[in-house]
Amino acid sequence: MQRRFNAFVPIFSSHALSTTPSNALALIAADMAEVDRVIAQRLDSGVPLVGTVSQYIISAGGKRIRPALLLLMAGALGYTDSQRHNLAAVVEFIHTATLLHDDVVDESTLRRGRPTANESFGNPASVLVGDFLYSRAFQMMVDSGEMRVMEVLAEATNVIAEGEVLQLMNMHDASLDEAGYLRVIRSKTAKLFEASTRLAAILAKSSPDVEAACADYGQALGTAFQVIDDVLDYDGDAKELGKNLGDDLREGKNTLPLIIAMQRGTPAQRQTIQSAIENGEMEALAEIVEIVRSTGALDATRAAASAEAERAIAALSILPTGPYREAMHALAAQLLDRRN
């Protein structure tokens, strides 16, 4: 099967990694099982619809990357207390809440290959259960007894909300530049990656330098992850992705592949993309996909993600050597070879 993240191959070929992404996740398999137990326990509610909707979206699959990063970073720092499982569940709850709200705002109908929660249960239920997950997450973070933990998660949740509003403001704006695009994804997506890895350092009572490096790793990896997600909207397979191709264009989102294509394309090509963004037009999707490919915008976007992955790997140099650090290196180098 064709690789979708070829930009990583020349950059990391010299590392000869012995750890693959699968092995990296196997390293924390027992921890992830405990996180699943915590999630199931804390989803319990006296209101049946809360549990039904929550279980629906959480059981839909996904890589659980954010809790996995927290656990891997905790392992690298030698932190073994059970509080890591509680906070890993917290970041998954916050992420799930954002998905519920995102799909309502974006009017999405498909996620991970099946109908979204709002499609199945309606917008009101999705919004209110998302609110439940946020409030449950804040109940759980108090269990840590660490004011710094609460400070980081409160800030992350606030920044994510700001990122959502920024994205809403940027809808149908064909003039959005790369700096504006990065501001959105570093708020909306990368912030929770960053918080996940920072939390591990806080739990382990690491030095400020180590904490900053852990946060840098998470932010860079989260940025690369979202950039590649935006590539796949124009270079993916709907069945593999579990979402509708061209959804970003339908929603009027101006993402990096389109920004670069407009910079490099002819005036006519630029006008075609601009019109589609401003009006949410899907009729020209096939033509726009061809423009994005012919201008080299996909390769340029992958190169931008590759640079973020290199930044993530550089941040790991401060950590002790060992299987956990190698696992996070492997994730940065290879996990973003993703099709869904």
UniProtKB/TrEMBL annotation:
This is Octaprenyl diphosphate synthase. Keywords: Magnesium, Metal-binding, Transferase. It is an enzyme of class 2 (transferase). It comes from the Bacteria. InterPro entries: Isoprenoid_synthase_dom_sf, Polyprenyl_synt, Polyprenyl_synt_CS. SUPFAM superfamilies: Terpenoid synthases. Belongs to the FPP/GGPP synthase family. Supplies octaprenyl diphosphate, the precursor for the side chain of the isoprenoid quinones ubiquinone and menaquinone. One of its GO terms (molecular function) is all-trans-octaprenyl-diphosphate synthase activity.
